[in-house]
Fold:
Amino acid sequence: MDIDARRRRLKQSARPWLLALIVLAAPPPAAAESFTILSQNMNRLFDDVDDGNNEKILSKTAFRARVVQAARKFSENFSLPRVIALQEVENVNVLRQIATEIRRHYAIDYRVVLIPGQDISAINLAFMVQADVEIRKTQQLFRERRLPLDGSPLFSRPPLYLEVCYLARCLTLLNLHLRSMRGIDDAARGQRVAHKRLRQAETIAAWANRFQGINSDSLLMILGDFNALTPADAHVDVAGIIRGNPDNTRARLKSHDLLDPDLIDLTRRIPTQRRYSYIFRQKKQQLDYMFGNQALADTVEEVAFAVIDYSFSDHAGLLARHRW
Structure:
């Protein structure tokens, strides 16, 4: 007989002291493991080596200071997440230096993932993954995809795909750093900027829809710096398109709903007054997001933006904690 049936019989026999004894004797439920994921734009974190890519080169002192600061932030502010998704990182050397600093001071090992993209300023997408998390697959998506308007690369920073497993449960992450709105109101180049943002969003949405169709039971998170406003800007609803619910009443460039089912914006769980990751001309904006499918959303215990620390980055970190 199960515990609930025993409790009902005890209540009927009016022996509350025995009910209390059985409740105390029943084994407690197993504590769920916590799995944390951080997304952080690193605000052009370069190293002190000239790679010949026209990149910014820091002094040894400045680079060392940023490495130490990153290790401290990831530990003290974010409690060393299992997976860290980074935007605006130069290369693997940067990541290895941070990982070494974390190992030295906090005795936690991270493996690093970075596949160079095509950004002319040499900034890339990356992951840092704790050593007890299995890395199943890494891949750069859509590197060869072209913008129909002029044949140029659609993604200067191609999305970075990561599949990981931890305690017999697997998760797919897609790290994004999409085209910014810079120049979108310019008479000469505004049309190209808007169309690039539209095609990028539609490409990600179509990919997510295919993924859900093939992997209906999988956990999926799309995260990073979307460079997208909510509510949408007047040109393209980038976040809405990727989520599967584009606002075609506000945006000049329309898009079809490309997802079924829609993704869930996990940042909607953050109180409105704290739901921002960037400040532009003294106006709070949300540019960074975490979207998940329903299976992923069901595991979320907490999601929050950090306070922006301009000595570290001009973007707030976005942290999610999951039951595992």
DSSP finds seven helices and 14 strands in the chain.
